[in-house]
Amino acid sequence: MQPVFSFFDPTIKRSLSFSKVEFERDAALLHRWQQQPYVVPYWKLNISFEDYKKHLKKFLSDEHQTLYLGLIDGVPMSYWEAYWVRGDVIENAYDPHPEDQGIHLLIGEEAFLGKGYALPLLRAIVNFQFLHQETEKVIAEPDIRNEKMIHVFEKCGFEKVKPIELPDKTGMLMYCYRETFERRWKDVFEGATKSV
Questions:
Q1: Which residues contact 137 (CB under 8 A, 6 or more apart)?
Q2: What helix, strand, coil percent values describe the chain, rounded to 5?
Q3: 10-47: pLDDT as tens digits
Q4: Terminal CA-CA length for the chain
Q5: Average pLDDT for 55-60
Q6: Which residues form the N-acetyltransferase domain (predicted)?
Q7: Which listed CATH number (3.30.360.10, 3.30.565.10, 3.40.630.30, 1.10.3210.10) goes with 5-190?
């Protein structure tokens, strides 16, 4: 599993990495994660494996987004959708800059829940997104009911903008500006080992 980005997080003393999703290797794992009771209310993908495979193939062929597995010390435990706002349904919810990016995530392995890993992982992938020099803002639109996730986004440096109506949910539009992010987490990423 070749990572596109890896980072040793000094705050949790764990190696975090992200690898692109591969259909044959990852479909069954991702389908299992989507059946988790704490995932279903927000992702609504508790569907048959056959239907999920169709969904995943469609998402993998969508050129405006990239799907990743998030790993801690080499163990796959989370799923990430990094996307360009242009070309996404969210682009109609605000006036996007052409290089704005967005992020969706879920923790798939229950053993990793409640251990304080969501923030370091989110911080790492947002840092990865900001490696694209023209991106000055990463956005998120978590389900407005998902207060835990909204709190994690805020701790990362995202700020609430407004509730928005999307086809599958009412989301809370949130922005994370490069300047805010880099100022907040400079010490974490300075001198850290990372590879792209």
A1: 97, 100, 101, 175, 176, 177, 178
A2: 35, 30, 35
A3: 999 999 999 999 999 999 999 999 999 999 999 999 99
A4: 14
A5: 98
A6: 16-179
A7: 3.40.630.30
